[in-house]
Write a structure and sequence with these properties.
- 2 copies of one chain form a homodimer.
- Chain A is mainly α.
- Chain A is about 60% helix and about 5% strand.
- The first copy, chain A, is built from 6 helices and 2 strands; from the N terminus they run H-H-H-H-E-E-H-H.
- In chain A, strand 1 (about 60-65) and strand 2 form a beta hairpin.
- In chain A, helix 1 (about 5-15) packs antiparallel against helix 4 (about 45-55) and helix 1 packs across helix 5.
- The longest helix of chain A is centred in the last third of the chain and has 20 residues, at about 95-115.
- The mean pLDDT of chain A is about 90.
- The interface between A and B is large, with 36 and 36 residues.
Amino acid sequence: MRPATDALSATFFALADPTRRAILHRLSRGAATVKEISAPFEMSGPAVSKHLRVLERAGLIQRGREAQWRPRTLNPAPIRDVAEWAGEFKRFWDASYARLDNYLEVLKKEEKKHGKRNG
Amino acid sequence: MRPATDALSATFFALADPTRRAILHRLSRGAATVKEISAPFEMSGPAVSKHLRVLERAGLIQRGREAQWRPRTLNPAPIRDVAEWAGEFKRFWDASYARLDNYLEVLKKEEKKHGKRNG
C-alpha cells in the first residue's frame, strides 16, 4: 500500500504523530521559530525539521516572510476539513442526532401507516 | 521517523487513505461482509483485506460474531476522538468562537480599567 497523496490523506498522515500534533498545539498559541518549537522536545534539530516538513507539505503550517527568523504559523484550514470529515459520523455518538434519527424513524412509520397521500 | 503507536496516531494513520475512509462511510450505512465492502472498489481481495486490517487495528471497525459471514461494523469511538482533537482548534475557523474570543478580550480590558475589585 503506497501512501495516498490526496490533500485529506496528507493531513491525516501528518496528524498521525504525537510530536506533530504537539507542534500544532504550540502554534495555536502563536507563531514560533524552529528553535522555540523544538525547545520542549528531546529530539535532534533535523528530527524536528523533518516533522515540520511533513506538516508544511500537508498545508498545516506555513513560514513567515521574515527572512532571518522565518517563524512558523498554524494554518487551520486542513484541521477544519478533518473536523468536517469526522462530523459526518456525529450521529453515531451525539445524543441530539440520535433523537433526530428516532424522530425521522417515527415520521417514516407514520407515513407508511397513512400511505402516500400525495402520490 | 517510525510510525507512532498511540491510539490517536493509529486512528489518524488509518484515516490517511481514501479507500479506508470510503469503507467507513459504507459501514456507516450498516454492517457489511468483506464481499459487500469490496464490491465498489477495483481492487484485489487481499488489498481490501489489508485495508480492513489497518482499520481493525485502529479500532475503527470490528467483526461480527456470526461465524460464517463475519460482517464488519463501524466503531465510531475513534472518530469521535478525532472530532474532539480537531475541535480544539475550532476557534480558528468558527465565527461564534471568534465572537467569544472578542467578548473575553473586552472583559479583560474592562477588568484592567476598573482594577482588581476582589483582589
